[in-house]
Each structure stands twice: as C-alpha cells, then as structure tokens.
From TrEMBL:
<dbReference type="GO" id="GO:0004222">
    <property type="term" value="F:metalloendopeptidase activity"/>
</dbReference>
<feature type="domain" description="Peptidase M13 N-terminal">
    <location>
        <begin position="1"/>
        <end position="324"/>
    </location>
</feature>
<dbReference type="GO" id="GO:0005886">
    <property type="term" value="C:plasma membrane"/>
</dbReference>
<dbReference type="InterPro" id="IPR042089">
    <property type="entry name" value="Peptidase_M13_dom_2"/>
</dbReference>
<protein>
    <recommendedName>
        <fullName>Peptidase M13 N-terminal domain-containing protein</fullName>
    </recommendedName>
</protein>
<dbReference type="InterPro" id="IPR000718">
    <property type="entry name" value="Peptidase_M13"/>
</dbReference>
<dbReference type="Pfam" id="PF05649">
    <property type="entry name" value="Peptidase_M13_N"/>
</dbReference>
<dbReference type="InterPro" id="IPR008753">
    <property type="entry name" value="Peptidase_M13_N"/>
</dbReference>
<dbReference type="GO" id="GO:0016485">
    <property type="term" value="P:protein processing"/>
</dbReference>
<comment type="similarity">
    <text>Belongs to the peptidase M13 family.</text>
</comment>
C-alpha cells in the first residue's frame, strides 16, 4: 500500500473529476453557471465515471417481488447521506449537526471559504431533509403489496411527466441494457417519485448540484488524504461513538474483496480448497441422487402420475459443491476481467 502516493496525489484527482462533471458549485463560486445544469445529465456523468447515480432516483435490476423467476427494472427512493431516522430529527439533532459539520469540514479541505460553505451547504442539507420527508419509512416498506406497482415506461411517462424516463433509464442502464417504452418497470414508491418531481421544480439548480456533488464526494472520502479521513472519523465518532478507524490496509483488503469478488474467491479457493475433497463430495452427491431415483421407482404407494412428476423434479436437481470450476481457469478469469485497468500510480 503506497500511502506516499496517496499523499502526493492529494485532492487534485477528485477536484479534476468534479470539474469534469460540471464542478461543485460551492467550490466553483460564481464560475458555476446554473443555465447549463440538468440533474439527469449529472447522473449520466456519474454513471459513466463509475459513481453511484442513484442519489435522487434509485434504478436497479432485481427479482420480481411476486415471481422470483423474473428479473426486472425497479425505480425506487434513494438512500440518504445520513439515516432517514436521524435526518428527520432536524437541525437541532446532534447527528444532523455532526453531519453538517462533516460537510463543511470536507468543503473547506477542498478549498472552499468556510462562510460560503456554511451558507450553501445548509441549503443542501435542507434539501436532503426534504428528500427524507418524501421518502417512506422502514415500517411502510414492509408492506410488499404497496411496493409492487408495475407499469410500462410509457405509462410512467404519462403519470410522472417531469422526467424523460425512457432516455433516463437507457442512459443509466447503458451499455448493458436497452429498453423501449413498452418495457415493464416496478415503481416501488410512486408517492416518492411524484413528490420528487415537485420538489425538484421548486429547488434551485445550484442546491441540486451541491447536494449531488456532496454525495459523490462523501462516497470517495475513504480513498483520499489523511486529512479527509480524519474528518470522516470525527463524523463517525459523533454518529457511532467510534474512537479510531480500522487500519488502512484492512480497508484496502475489504475493498478489493468487495469490488473484485471473483478474483479474490479464486485466490481463496486455490489456497484453501482440496480438489480431491471436491471430487469425493461430487461422487457422494451423485450416489445420493441415484439412490433417490431408485427409491422413487420402488415406492408402491405412489401413483404413476405423481411418480413421473417426482422423477422429473429429481432429474432437474443441480448440485453446487464448494466452488465453480471456472475459478481455476486463468483464461476464463482473464477474459472476464479484460477491461479492468489497474494503475499503481492512480
């Protein structure tokens, strides 16, 4: 782990990325022009770079709530920078105050004037509080029926006309998925989507941009300088009572394991798994399936239609033992990760 390189790069890489996305208004000052801002285009820019693009609307592909054999697109309310329960306590809450201080400290570290940061990011915080107010609580989201609202994109466009949904979804899902207006989408929280469109219509573009950029910056703090990480620790101390952060090498290991699970799984399997043991387990499972098949054939109390159905099901049984063989194939692993670029100086 090259801490020296992290210190050398400092915050310039992050600043360059922010500029490429249009700039953080509180940092840009009067240079930031609201006329050229559109929150949808900002989410597209985040998406292209590899950042989360779900700070206002969460777009996911997940299992259908009523049929787990189907996967589909879902529109949902986003997570917030601070727990909804905390942020709804308002500006007098120690947690909200700690969160606001965190925002200010990070902005000043990046070069903002403190007074400007306090003024502009207070508006950003108020916007996030409004997002919390229009979102559903954990208790409300336990009602699966309320979360299942499937409609086509054309129907979504007619009902929630403040956003160009077809363009938005295709841009967010690009290049993996392309949809047309007849595509079915589950709108998990219609009330949130409707309220969001109204909220955006009365929120200045500068406030929208400040909030979205803050969320991106917050997501990158762990990769930045020791000064930034200290601000994060101070916030976590207020929020969770922690007195120190994990060693940076541990965080790096966890990050690699999280972002490159197939490669780390391959390393683990090659070091700790016994191929002979897997072969023996596979043989044992084969014997069990054969025995089960023979038992079904010999049962005298089972009618033939039921027996046929049971045999068909038994024939479809799949066994997953230990790990997939692909984890031992360097060619397959290389092809899967061929677009991955790792530069030790970045």
């Amino acid at each position: 782990m090259n801490k020296g390189k992290i210190a050398e790069l400092g915050l310039q890489v992050l600043k360059d990325v922010l500029v490429s996305c249009g700039g953080w208004p509180v940092l840009e000052g009067p240079r930031w022009i609201p006329d050229s801002f559109d929150w949808e285009n900002l989410m597209f820019a985040f998406n292209r770079i590899g950042f989360d693009s779900g700070y206002l609307v969460e777009v996911t592909i997940g299992t259908d709530l009523k049929n787990n054999s189907i996967r589909g697109i879902q529109l949902d309310q986003p997570s917030l920078g601070l727990s909804r329960d905390f942020i709804l306590q308002g500006n007098e809450s120690q947690f909200v105050q700690g969160y606001f201080k965190y925002m200010i400290d990070v902005a000043v570290e990046l070069g903002c004037e403190k007074q400007a940061a306090e003024r502009e990011l207070k508006e950003s915080l108020d916007f996030e509080i409004e997002l919390a107010k229009i979102s559903s609580s954990k208790e409300e989201r336990r009602n699966i029926t309320m979360l299942y609202n499937v409609m086509t994109i054309a129907e979504i466009q007619e009902r929630f006309s403040g956003i160009q949904w077809l363009e938005y979804l295709n841009s967010i899902l690009h290049p993996h998925v392309h949809v047309n207006s007849s595509e079915a989408v589950n709108v998990v929280s219609p009330r949130y989507i409707s309220s969001l469109i109204d909220l955006l219509s009365r929120t200045p573009k500068r406030v929208q941009a400040n909030y979205a950029m803050w969320r991106v910056i917050k997501s990158q703090i762990s990769y930045l300088t020791e000064g930034m990480i200290q601000h994060q620790l101070n916030f976590h101390r207020t929020l969770f009572g922690v007195s120190e952060r994990p060693s940076r090498w541990k965080e790096c290991v966890e990050e690699v394991s999280s972002e490159l699970p197939i490669l780390t799984s391959a390393l683990y399997v090659r070091k700790y798994f016994d191929n002979d043991a897997k072969s023996a387990a596979h043989e044992m499972v084969t014997y069990i399936k054969e025995s089960f098949h023979n038992i079904l054939l010999s049962l005298d109390w089972m009618d033939e239609q039921t027996r046929k159905s049971a045999l068909d099901k038994a024939a479809l049984l799949e066994s997953h033992i230990g790990y997939p063989d692909e984890l031992l194939d360097d060619e397959i692993l290389g092809k899967y990760h061929e677009t991955l670029k790792v530069d030790p100086d970045e």
